[in-house]
Each structure stands twice: as C-alpha cells, then as structure tokens.
Amino acid sequence: EKYARHNLLPRLDLIASMRDNDPSADRSVAGYDYDTLGRDWSVGVMFSVPLGNMKARAGRDRAESELKQAADEKKNTEAIIVAEVKISVKSLDLISQEIPQSERAVEAARKVVDGEWARFELNQVGNRDLLQAQDLLAVSERNRIQNLIRYNNAIVGLLAAEGTLLDHLGVVMN
After folding, report:
1. Helices (H) and strands (E) in the chain, counts
2. CB of 22 within 8 A of CB of 38?
3. Which of 85, 86, 84, 104 is nearest to 147 (CA)?
4. Are 165 and 155 in contact (CB under 8 A)?
5. Phi first, then psi: what are they for 11, rounded to 5°?
6. What is the DSSP string of 3-55?
7. Against a cut of 0.70, is the pTM above it?
8. Which of 43, 95, 124, 156 is the most buried (most CB within 10 A)?
9. Within a 10 A sphere around the Cβ of 81, how many other Cβ atoms?
10. What is the rounded CA–CA span in Å between residue 134 and residue 122?
C-alpha cells in the first residue's frame, strides 16, 4: 500500500551522464587523466507531477482493497477459532457430565448381575434372566467406554481448536 501511494507523489530524479567524444585518444599518463577536453558531461534534474495518474491510483486502490480484505479474513478466522473453542469447551463439559452417569450405570448393572447370579444359584431364576442381566452389564460397559472415547476426542478437538495439539503431543516443526 505504501508503494502504491508513493506512485501518486511528485517525482524528482537526478540525471547525470558522461560521454567520451574520441574513445581512441589516450588522455592518461600513468593511469591519471590529464585532459577532459574530449568528454561531454551533463547533469540535470527531472521533476514530474502525476496528473490524473489512473494506473497509480488503481494500484493504490487495489492495494488498499487487498489490505482491507486481508484484515477482514483475519477477523473472520479469529471469530471462527473463538467459536470452535467455545463449541469444544461446551462439548467437553457435556461429555464429562455423562461419564459419572455411565460409571454409575455400570456399577448398578454389576449389582444386578450379582443379584441375578445369587438368585440363579438358589434356582429362583433361569439362564435367560442371568443372561439378560449380563447383557445389561455389557451394554452399560460399552456405553461407558464410548463416553470415555468421546471425552478423549473432545479433548483432542479442544486442543486442535486452540492450536495447541502439536505442542501437547510434543511435535516440533522446523
């Protein structure tokens, strides 16, 4: 953007030139010039003011537009990151509340299995009732494991949203 604005400013150039009229003439003694008669020198200053410089103005406008677009993209990216972090924190919170419930369900299912086993040994229930209790325990344990997996995935999601996953895993990029 600075460069594009610079092109709209007046320009002042210093111009200098030297020309040797007779390149075949030897005008030196031991490497020192002693005569400048065969050379033309000119020094000048050129001043220009861009009037209606449409190309420079278009370049400036394009640079300003690209700068604004980059700032907008940065702001949008920051908003997306904040939203992803909030969603990840909420998800982690919800899943962490389900883990104790699933652990209580497993403990309750174990008690049911123990009770059904005791009743089975007393011939008060059949194989079917005992198998149903064991199936309830298996479903409860599966749900608990799934909740633990979801919890760990939520932690990974939060670390990824925060941008700290690689640091957490000890990955160093060169």
Report:
1. 4, 4
2. yes
3. 104
4. no
5. -120, 135
6. HHHHTTS-EEEEEEEEEES-TTS--EETTEE---TTEEEEEEEEEE--SS-HH
7. no
8. 95
9. 13
10. 18
